[in-house]
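Notes to self after the call with IL:
- keep both proteins in one doc
- input above output, always
- annotate only the second one for now

Protein 1:
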Amino acid sequence: MEIREGGLDDPQVVALLNVHFQGMLANSPKDSCHFLDLSGLRAPGVTFWSAWDGEDLLGCAALKQLDSQHGEIKSMRTAAEHLRRGTGAALVSHILGVARARGYKRLSLETGSGEAFDAAHALYRQFGFTECAPFADYKADPFSRFLSRVL
């Protein structure tokens, strides 16, 4: 597996992100979906990665800088045909390494609260993330779960 920075112009990446957007909207009300669209993923302070096996896109993820000591995981998605093969774990490990190298003291994320998000919750728990209060500009929402960990 090769994790590459960027890829937002690749048609496979755009297609996977569209699946991600549609999945979020299918499982949570629109006002409770906090994904970054393509322009948001290109914004200053956001770093995007895509994971590949040769020409096969495995997944993607992003890291948004909230402040000099706090980052947020965004846009984590594994391609359906590559689920349960370690892509998500590799991307989280990569982001943890980058966050530490940047000197972040905390890494957080917002995800959905329903059954469709159980696998994501389990993945983040494996990496030491625990539930926390809403952070940054988020508000309490029954369709959101907030997780964080100290680095």
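Protein 2 (the one to annotate):
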Amino acid sequence: MSEAIARELMAQRFRSFLPVVVDLETGGFNAERDAILEIAAVTLTMDPEGNLIPDATYAFHVKPFTGANVEQSALDFTGIRLDDPLRQQVALTEAEALGEIFRPVRKAIKAHGCTRAVLVGHNAAFDHGFLNAAVARCGIKRNPFHPFSSFDTASLAGLVYGQTVLARSCRAAGIEFDNSSAHSARYDTERTAELFCAMINRYKDLGGWALAQREQGIEEQP
């Protein structure tokens, strides 16, 4: 399969949307009030056999926006130390972090012949809500992500594996998961990307995608 065919299949597979896996670590559960502390994204692509695979990872520490709330319980849960000198040295503002994520996402959308990104997340509504709130705070006009559509790997894993917790879902899919590394945006995003790809590819290998193509009248590629 050529790169052109893989590009065409990616554009067809999700109705011209490019799935991009996103995870955020936050200072609480209120997207309007609580800070984003880490953000990570993994772009996806297709291999020559038409399997969905992780492509590139982008991960950043984020400075709490002015007036943001950060619950101590959230810091205890994630293990994030706001006073860590290394973190303070590399952390970006929300606007800077979103810019660093959105630029390669836009490039990936164009490279795969897609029109927009669709957020993939484990309990996606949580990450999507925080992302949209940050976009609004920063006054960003060109958000590459669909404003409300998303793919939730917790729901998909419940269907495929009977598991909804990320660690258990990964293990059910044969993906190693280190609990001590969890709740880092980079680690959780990369494992979620592997999980999403595993489920999409399993469906393809079982013949479900080929059947869906035939029912929609989509011509299968050689």
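Annotation: The longest strand covers residues 36-46. DSSP finds nine helices and five strands in the chain.
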